[in-house]
Amino acid sequence: RAKQRGRDRLEVYDPAMQATAHDRLTLGSDLRRALARGEMRVVYQPIVDLDTGTAVGAEALLRWRHPERGDVPPDVFVPVAEESGAIVEIGAWVLETALAEVAPHVPTDRAAPFTLAVNLSPRQLEDPTLVTRLQGALRRHGWPAEQLCLELTETALTDDLDLALGVLVRLRATGARIAVDDFGTGYSSLTHLQALPIDSIKIDRSFVQGLGDHRGSERSTIARCVLGIAGAMDLEAVAEGVETQAQLEALRRLGCRRGQGYLFSVPVPADVLEATVLGGPRPPRG
Ligand code: C2E
Ligand code: MG
Ligand code: MG
Ligand code: MG
Prior knowledge:
Elements: H1 2-9, H2 15-34, E1 40-49, E2 55-66, E3 70-72, H3 74-84, H4 87-102, E4 115-119, H5 122-125, H6 130-141, E5 148-153, H7 154-159, H8 161-173, E6 177-183, H9 190-195, E7 200-203, H10 205-209, H11 217-232, E8 236-239, H12 245-253, E9 258-259, H13 270-278
Parallel strand pairs: 2-4, 4-5, 5-6, 6-7, 7-8, 8-9
Antiparallel strand pairs: 1-2, 1-9, 2-3
Helix pairs in contact: 2-3, 4-6
The chain binds ligand C2E and magnesium ion (3 copies).
One magnesium ion (MG) binds next to strand 6.
């Protein structure tokens, strides 16, 4: 991070940089009103069993339609919301909305249990009401904690390992599952990860991209290593950003059993998730 800052310093007088700083400032104040103005919504991307193609869950992903700028990607506004702390309220809203939208439509006693995944910001770990809010939301919507997975990035978990450990233990005591998101993109040591009570890891899209492509051998090596680590640590692995049949086949060969990506479905509104993935007419069996 220090190195990165050093590099940024050279660009202080770059007009593009100033525009960015200004942007962040106005986005920050717009964000504070976004929820109340109904500009936020949640979409869901199915997570599928790579062997059968059945949806075994879905990840809730936040969307913001800004009145003037149009859709602002979460990679742009989530960091701004994290900086201002607005992400605590927004994140609580995502959890509540996702449960409210998914719970009424998904039988919790399906043969293959359906797991709802929600992203948590590191700032939410500092929220002393996080665990009680979570329990309240689960109870209100009648959703089993075991079918909720909280995704935290590797850096969120290892920046303040003691804080993360304490909160994860309490979160997991509710029954909820924990996934390490964007696994392999941070610099956490395996020693750190091993200390944390986690259930699964999500293999970052950048490592999945090179799979099944002859030029991507280095990245496929990383994917293979990550799957090896998951296996050795007895964690489930979910591949992110599966876009091609070749990637799917490579993942299957490597023993990866779960994935999400445009090959299966883009993130969709709850009613589409229900209609096409969960409740919709099943194709006739051969
Ligand atoms: P993430 O949690 O790693 O989510 C996966 C991202 O990959 C999503 O981007 C998803 O739309 C995208 N994706 C899925 N399949 C494919 C694919 O096949 N190809 C490509 N190119 N992309 C694919 P999205 O929705 O733009 O979200 C970006 C990031 O923003 C998320 O990464 C997550 O870190 C953050 N985010 C999104 N919603 C929330 C939220 O409710 N709370 C928090 N704290 N962060 C969120
Ligand atoms: Mg995620
Ligand atoms: Mg990810
Ligand atoms: Mg990501």
